[in-house]
Amino acid sequence: MRIAVIGAGAMGCLYGGLLARSGKDVVLVDLWAEHIQAIRDQGLRLGGISGDLMIPVAATVDPEPESADVAIILTDTNATREAARTAARTLTAEGWAITLQNGIGNLEAMAEALGAERVVGGLSYHSAAVEGPGRTLHTHAGPTWLGELDGRRSARVEAFAEALSDAGFQPQIVDDIEAHIWTKFIHNAAINPISALLNLRVGEISLNPEADALQSRIIAEALAVVRARGITLTDADPMASIKAFCKTKFNAPSMLQHLEAGKRTEVDSLNGAVAAHGQALGVPTPYNEALAWMVKGMERQRRRLREHGPFDYAALEAEAIAREQAS
After folding, report:
1. pTM of the predicted model, to two decimals?
2. Would you state the pLDDT for residue 11?
3. Contact 33/61 with Cβ under 8 angstroms?
């Protein structure tokens, strides 16, 4: 089984690195050339709860066509369609792809490029952070859920689960993977944007009364959308579970990391998706819609600062006045 990990960010390096360390044939695929070169030159350094590891693993920005049996999609959700097209070129004729991404909409995007029969659903409760080119930190461990979209048991998923188990993960094959994906979708939508906007670690949300109250509104709207769509979640009481989670975990969610780095976030596949589904179903979602707008506004401002440096506000004001006078 040759495995291509498409999206060698924090999570891609975590999964690809530990699979390679267990003896699996793995190639990491990413567009970040400096990162890929560092891995090729020195190996992947994986720290954190997995230990301090230096892992030799193949890495490339341009994977060979028809060279992989399995593609693990771990780009951010903004790049899912392009990642799926890369998988279509990279996989053998019998190859298939699995998403371990956050949010919803990834399965549909992958099915467009590959066909639904070549797509497997999954999600991960691990957390990781990129520390620099060729360096990743493993910050939280949890299960990895896997399942065929039609709910059947299959040899390919069982073989992949065995490979994950060999690498030290805790794979669990389920018969309703979309229910698990939607359950984690609610979890991420309730935590990630608040953490990103208020610069709070997960556990700090429960210690901040205003943030905690806002989170309750977000969850309530998301659950109203779930009910309107007729989806049965795997968690009977997501509100209680998320509140309990936020009392004990102090990791920095990926959305906070992305905003700090001036990168585009995954908010469109989280709170933006809640708002979009709510609009289609006639379910009001003002808190989720507002959060999505605020995160997108902040990421746009961070990108501008990253690209242009501090603004000369006096000059901007003078230019604006001149434009007004000329119009």
Report:
1. 0.89
2. 96
3. yes
